[in-house]
């Protein structure tokens, strides 16, 4: 996705060196539609420059700082020398991430998605996240809950989550499920406590998994699992609910697992 407007003064932008002249370098801005900037020879590198081509080459991807924007004359003044190595690497990574997110949008909504539809979804995501990449990464980690405040239809949310889970590499993922535990016996409370201990694992949960169980509202309990991937997380979640159900059933009670919350707000 390219922005249709103009960059702000002081902003870091990514561009490809399009033309090199004796007085400077013209740069096509990758993030902005039909926008081109000029880095004067004095802004290409520090110190005296004998030959601009000793510092940049045509087709090279550079990060530049926007010095000035004159919309009336269609001119954008840039500085390449004012960007340090840390800023350059950080901006390039951010740009690459957005390219990935652009591909994920195409996977989710089709390669032939029209601009209006793309913009509608993108605007909804950007209203809650700093970037499209952040939105997809959050959806991959937290699932549909990450998009609770995004103004999109449920089908769109499901599509984004599914695409994120299939394509985004994340350090961990979170899943949540619920188990209803009931025991009519006189010591039912004690049996429910034992069932909750069983749900938490009793040493059966792997070191790579973080699992917790919390009370939501009688008879519902929330199980949260953090794991390296969805297959592991889903398996741990279901196993936790199964352990709780088996424990309470052995004491004469009942256990029921479900993915969506059913009690009223706490």
Summarize the structure.
The protein has 6 helices and 9 strands; from the N terminus they run E-E-E-E-E-H-H-H-H-E-H-E-E-H-E.
Question: Please, could you describe this protein's structure?
Answer:
The chain has six helices and nine strands, in the order E-E-E-E-E-H-H-H-H-E-H-E-E-H-E. The strands form two sheets. Strands 1-2-3-5-4 form a five-stranded mixed beta barrel. Strands 7-8-6-9 form a four-stranded antiparallel β-sheet. Helix 1 crosses helix 4 and helix 3 (132-142) crosses helix 4. The chain has 266 residues and is α+β, with helices and mostly antiparallel strands. The longest helix has 25 residues, at 85-109.
List keywords for this structure.
single chain, 266 residues, alpha+beta, five-stranded mixed beta barrel, four-stranded antiparallel beta sheet, 6 helices, 36% helix
Q: Outline the biggest β-sheet.
A: 5 strands, mixed, barrel
Helix content: 25-40%
Number of helices: 6
Output the helix-strand order.
EEEEEHHHHEHEEHE
Lay out the secondary structure.
Layout: E1 12-20, E2 24-29, E3 36-40, E4 61-70, E5 75-79, H1 85-109, H2 115-126, H3 132-142, H4 154-167, E6 173-182, H5 188-200, E7 210-217, E8 220-227, H6 230-250, E9 254-258
Parallel strand pairs: 3-5
Antiparallel strand pairs: 1-2, 1-4, 2-3, 4-5, 6-8, 6-9, 7-8
Helix pairs in contact: 1-4, 3-4, 5-6
């Amino acid at each position: 996705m390219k922005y249709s407007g103009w960059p702000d003064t002081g902003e870091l932008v990514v561009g490809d060196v399009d033309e090199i002249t004796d007085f400077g370098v013209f740069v096509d801005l990758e993030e902005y539609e039909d926008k081109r900037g000029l880095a004067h020879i004095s802004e290409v590198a520090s110190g005296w420059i004998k030959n601009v081509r000793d510092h940049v080459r045509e087709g090279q991807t550079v990060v530049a700082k926007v010095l000035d924007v004159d919309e009336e004359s269609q001119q954008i003044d840039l500085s390449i020398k004012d960007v340090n190595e840390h800023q350059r690497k950080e901006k390039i990574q951010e740009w690459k991430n957005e390219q990935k997110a652009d591909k994920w949008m195409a996977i989710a909504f089709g390669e032939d998605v029209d601009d209006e539809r793309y913009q509608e979804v993108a605007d909804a995501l950007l209203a809650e996240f700093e970037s499209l990449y952040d939105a997809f990464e959050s959806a991959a980690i937290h699932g549909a809950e990450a998009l609770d405040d995004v103004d999109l239809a449920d089908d769109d949310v499901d599509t984004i989550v599914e695409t994120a889970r299939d394509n985004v590499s994340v350090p961990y993922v979170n899943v949540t499920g619920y188990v209803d535990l009931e025991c009519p016996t006189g010591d039912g409370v004690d049996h429910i406590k034992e069932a909750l201990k069983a749900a938490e694992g009793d040493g059966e949960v792997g070191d790579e998994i973080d699992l917790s169980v919390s009370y939501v509202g009688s008879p519902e309990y929330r199980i949260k699992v953090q794991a390296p991937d969805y297959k592991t997380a889903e398996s741990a979640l279901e196993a936790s609910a199964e352990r709780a159900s088996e424990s309470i059933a052995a004491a004469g009670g009942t256990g029921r697992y479900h993915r969506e919350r059913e009690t009223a707000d706490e």
